[in-house]
Specification:
Length: about 180
């Protein structure tokens, strides 16, 4: 956790430096900013991306690739997962970023678990991306500790399956009266 907090502070410092010292901005520094933004996007559902995006200068915000990264972030945050998978195939920064698709799938699993109790297998596979085959799908289901039941997957919590029973105790008023008596 400490490492994560230090990394966020360092990243914010780099982005602030570019924001307040525009003379330091080169093509290489813009590429670094794009790299930082994609890495921050990989931390969803944490708010790293929003935090990093707020540190950018207007010149960086107006950059075409920054706008594309914003579009991808919006697709993820608004749960437009099939469109997300189509858009990231068009841009090299997403396909070449190590671990990006795995982090996106982790976020999608998080959203699915918050949204559904049971979900159809085919629909879940579609949400998890076009490159998900049956073996990878079963691996993800096992990793998330979900129950695969034929054509559907139970993604809810096991506690929700337990029936709750209301216990009613009947105490005669004679037993309760001395306890409640105000002196």
């Amino acid at each position: 956790k400490q490492w994560y907090q230090r990394r966020v502070v360092i990243t914010a410092g780099i982005l602030k430096l570019y924001q307040f010292s525009p003379d330091l901005i080169t093509r290489s520094s813009i590429d670094n900013v794009h790299y930082v933004l994609v890495k921050a996007l990989m931390q969803l559902p944490r708010s790293d991306y929003v935090f990093c995006r707020a540190q950018l200068s207007q010149e960086m915000i107006d950059d075409n690739l920054t706008k594309k990264i914003d579009d991808v972030a919006t697709l993820l945050e608004t749960c437009q997962f099939p469109e997300f998978w189509n858009v990231i195939q068009e841009e090299k920064i997403f396909t070449e970023m190590t671990g990006f698709t795995e982090c996106a799938r982790k976020f999608i699993c998080h959203v699915v678990q918050l949204t559904y109790k049971n979900i159809e297998e085919d629909f879940l596979m579609q949400l998890l991306g076009p490159s998900v085959d049956k073996d990878l799908f079963l691996e993800i289901v096992a990793e998330e500790k979900w129950d695969h039941n034929g054509d559907s997957v139970f993604v809810g919590h096991k506690e929700e399956m337990v029936e709750q029973k209301e216990i009613i105790e009947k105490m005669p008023i004679e037993v309760v009266t001395p306890i409640l008596a105000i002196r």
